[in-house]
C-alpha cells in the first residue's frame, strides 16, 4: 500500500499571542480571517507585521490564527541569513533557547526574547491516517519527492492528533530545492 500525502509549502509566517496581537494592533483587537489553512480551525489572517532583524527587515509577514500560547516566527534558512538571526531547526512550539526579534504593527511594537525558528519538516496526520499506516506521533519518516529534482527527505516528523488533517509541510527553501508546490504529493517510504 503506497502512502501518498499532500504537500503544503509553508512561507514565512508568524503566530502571535493575544497579548502581542493587542500590542501590535490595539487593545481588544481580534485577527480577521483571509483564508482557511489545511489544518482545521487554522487560518491566514488579513493582518501582517513588520519583522526587524539585525541585518534586514521583512515589511509584511503574514499572521496565522487563531492566537497561540506563545509568539513564534517561522522562517526559512535563507530568511534567517537575510534577517541576521541564527534560527535553529525546531518543531513548532519548541522555542526554548531560540533567538528573539522585533515586531512592528500599526499600533505598537514588541521585541520577543525567543521564538524564531526554521520549522522542522513534518507531516500532520489525523489519528485515523496514522493508525492505518502504523505511524506513531514523533516518529521520524523518509519521504520521496519525484520529478526532475526528485529527492528523499529524511527526518520528517510525524505529528498525530484527532484535530489534524493529513498534510506535509515543508518550507520554501525545501520546496524550491525539489521544484514542489502546494497541492503536489509525496510518498512516505519508511
Automatic annotation (TrEMBL):
Query: Which reaction does this enzyme catalyse, per its entry?
Result: propanoyl-CoA + phosphate = propanoyl phosphate + CoA
Cofactor dependence is on: Zn(2+)
Matching InterPro entries:
PTAC (IPR008300)
Enzyme Commission number(s) from the entry? 2.3.1.222
* Coiled-coil features, chain-numbered ranges: none
Q: In which pathway does it act?
A: Polyol metabolism; 1,2-propanediol degradation
Swiss-Prot/TrEMBL keywords = Acyltransferase, Metal-binding, Transferase, Zinc
Which family is annotated?
Belongs to the PduL family.
What biological function has been recorded for the protein in this entry? Involved in 1,2-propanediol (1,2-PD) degradation by catalyzing the conversion of propanoyl-CoA to propanoyl-phosphate.
PANTHER family, sorted: PHOSPHATE PROPANOYLTRANSFERASE
- Protein name according to UniProt: Phosphate propanoyltransferase
Q: Which organism is it from?
A: Saccharibacillus kuerlensis
Its ancestry begins with: Bacteria, Bacillati, Bacillota, Bacilli, Bacillales
Amino acid at each position: 500500500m503506497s502512502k501518498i500525502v499532500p504537500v503544503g509549502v509553508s512561507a514565512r509566517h508568524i503566530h502571535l499571542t493575544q497579548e502581542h496581537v493587542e500590542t501590535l494592533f490595539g487593545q481588544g483587537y481580534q485577527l480577521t480571517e483571509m483564508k482557511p489553512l489545511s489544518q482545521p480551525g487554522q487560518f491566514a489572517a488579513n493582518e501582517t507585521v513588520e519583522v526587524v532583524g539585525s541585518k534586514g527587515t521583512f515589511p509584511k509577514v503574514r499572521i496565522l490564527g487563531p492566537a497561540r500560547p506563545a509568539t513564534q516566527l517561522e522562517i526559512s534558512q535563507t530568511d534567517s541569513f537575510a534577517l541576521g538571526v541564527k534560527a535553529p531547526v525546531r518543531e513548532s512550539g519548541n522555542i526554548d533557547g531560540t533567538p528573539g526579534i522585533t515586531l512592528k504593527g500599526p499600533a505598537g511594537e514588541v521585541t520577543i526574547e525567543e521564538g524564531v525558528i526554521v520549522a522542522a519538516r513534518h507531516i500532520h496526520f489525523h489519528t485515523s491516517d496514522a493508525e492505518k499506516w502504523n505511524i506513531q506521533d514523533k516518529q521520524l519518516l523518509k519521504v520521496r519527492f519525484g520529478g526532475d529534482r526528485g529527492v528523499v527527505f529524511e527526518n520528517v516528523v510525524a505529528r498525530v492528533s484527532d484535530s489534524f488533517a493529513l498534510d506535509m509541510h515543508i518550507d520554501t527553501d525545501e520546496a524550491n530545492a525539489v521544484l514542489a508546490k502546494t497541492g503536489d504529493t509525496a510518498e512516505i517510504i519508511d
